[in-house]
């Protein structure tokens, strides 16, 4: 499996790349080849006096390349120009990546209200499963918040096709997962279920699949706003990563109010893994 690891060469990005435990977790789920990419914003020009961003970034990225090689991965580096989330998405599609990894400090009111961070833009546009690795926010020398990426998973489902696709990620995550909490949030008009379907029973069927892989599993049905309740479940169960489909049932909600997945990326305390719909 191949992964794209995006970096802006900041201290936060360095925390993701240099965390030995995180790298081991990626290896455990089958990642063998890592493509390390940094994007020079399109408004930064080669001719700016006294500044050679491309040379500086190529020099800086070599240090990260050695770290990843020492962890046992094959590595290719890419220094490109353009809009960060578009170039990262394009590279992932070009190489056929199974996962894109990006560090994010998250929880910035400015990011949420204005244009959004690279991580949030990737959440909107990615065609590849996206792992948002949460970094400490208020620290001069930040570290990753959850070192074991997939040890304790919180899987949130609305029983849509995309949620089912997200659950399929356990086929490789199981090699690094010990515990899982399966959560469904009921809303007054729940388009995911017909009147004769029982969410507890459906979660139970999913739990049986995980327990067959020796993953200790619990299920929980909540009522209320999906994003709020998923985040409340995160607070209760302290997972290392939330796993969720990047599109739910309501296209209208996504267009007008922002999707549940985008809210989770912006507000979660720990890591978030988004799985987009199948292109078909």
Describe this protein's structure.
- This protein has 280 residues and is α/β, with parallel strands linked by helices.
- The chain contains 12 helices and 10 strands.
- A 10-stranded mixed beta sheet has the order 3-2-1-4-5-10-9-6-7-8, sandwiched between helices.
- Helix 9 links the parallel strand 7 and strand 8 (216-223).
- Helix 4 (84-95) packs across helix 6 (118-125), helix 6 runs antiparallel to helix 12 and helix 10 (226-237) packs parallel to helix 12 (260-267).
- The longest helix is centred in the N-terminal third of the chain and has 18 residues, at 53-70.
- The protein is globular, with a radius of gyration of 19 Å.
- The protein starts with a strand and ends in a 5-residue tail after the last strand.
- Residues 108-116 and 250-258 have low confidence and may be disordered.
The best one-word shape is globular
Order of helices and strands: EHHEHEHEHHEEHHEHEHEHHE
How much strand content do the residues show? 15-25%
Low-confidence stretches: 108-116, 250-258
Named CATH topology of the largest domain: Rossmann fold
What does the average pLDDT come to?
81
Structural class: alpha/beta
């Amino acid at each position: 499996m191949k992964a794209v690891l995006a970096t802006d060469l900041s201290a936060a990005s360095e925390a993701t790349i240099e965390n030995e435990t995180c790298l081991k977790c990626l290896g455990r789920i089958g990642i063998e080849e890592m493509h390390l990419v940094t994007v020079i914003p399109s408004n930064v020009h080669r001719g700016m006096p006294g500044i050679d961003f491309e040379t500086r970034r190529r020099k800086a990225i070599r240090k990260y390349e050695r770290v990843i090689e020492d962890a046992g991965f094959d590595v290719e580096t890419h220094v490109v120009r353009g809009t960060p989330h578009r170039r990262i998405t394009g590279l992932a599609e070009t190489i056929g990546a199974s996962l894109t990894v990006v560090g994010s400090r998250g929880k910035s009111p400015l990011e949420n209200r204005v244009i959004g961070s690279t991580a949030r833009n990737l959440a909107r546009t990615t065609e590849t499963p996206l792992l948002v690795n949460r970094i400490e926010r208020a620290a001069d020398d930040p570290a990753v918040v959850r070192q074991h990426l997939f040890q304790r998973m919180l899987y949130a489902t609305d029983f849509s096709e995309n949620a089912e696709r997200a659950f399929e990620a356990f086929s490789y995550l199981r090699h690094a997962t010990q515990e899982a909490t399966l959560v469904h949030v009921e809303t007054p008009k729940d388009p995911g279920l017909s009147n004769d379907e029982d969410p507890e029973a459906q979660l139970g069927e999913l739990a049986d699949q995980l327990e067959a892989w020796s993953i200790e599993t619990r299920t929980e049905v909540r009522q209320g706003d999906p994003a709020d309740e998923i985040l409340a479940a995160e607070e209760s169960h302290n997972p290392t990563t939330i796993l969720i489909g990047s599109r739910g049932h309501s296209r209208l909600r996504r267009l007008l109010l922002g999707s549940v997945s985008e809210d989770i990326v912006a507000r979660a305390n720990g890591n978030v893994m988004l799985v987009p719909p199948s292109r078909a």
